[in-house]
Design a protein that fits this description.
mainly alpha; 2 domains; 6 helices; 0% strand; binds magnesium ion
């Protein structure tokens, strides 16, 4: 399923429930932030070396999948509400990041682009 189909499905989901009245861009951004927090909370106390074992448990995988889908759904709706094409935005931002972080300067280092020199 492509991005535009997902956005169309989300519009229909909200319309069928008369929820569009609640979906201001501001509210959607706050919901996006909340769902990102829910995803963070799942992993909050899981040590990096334990992630593999953690996600191997079906209940954890389902919970993480649900929160990731929630984040995606609100991100799709925010972009839809702002009439921003997500594929174009992603492509443009990846190109900007590639320019900011040239491989020869940034490979293997986590230095912010302003400090790469
Ligand atoms: Mg959630």
């Amino acid at each position: 399923m492509g991005i535009h189909q997902m956005q169309s499905d989300l519009r229909a989901f909200a319309r069928e429930r008369d929820w569009e009245q609640f979906h201001s861009v501001k509210n959607l951004v706050m919901a996006l932030s909340g769902e990102a927090g829910e995803l963070s909370a799942l992993l909050q106390w899981v040590e990096p070396g334990q992630i593999g074992a953690w996600i191997a448990r079906p209940a954890n995988r389902e919970a993480a999948s649900d929160e990731i889908a929630d984040v995606l759904a609100y991100l799709l709706q925010v972009a839809d509400g702002l009439d921003i094409d997500l594929e174009e935005a992603f492509t443009a931002k990846l190109a900007k990041n590639a320019a900011k972080y040239p491989v020869e300067k940034s490979r293997g280092v986590s230095t912010k682009y302003t400090e790469l020199g």
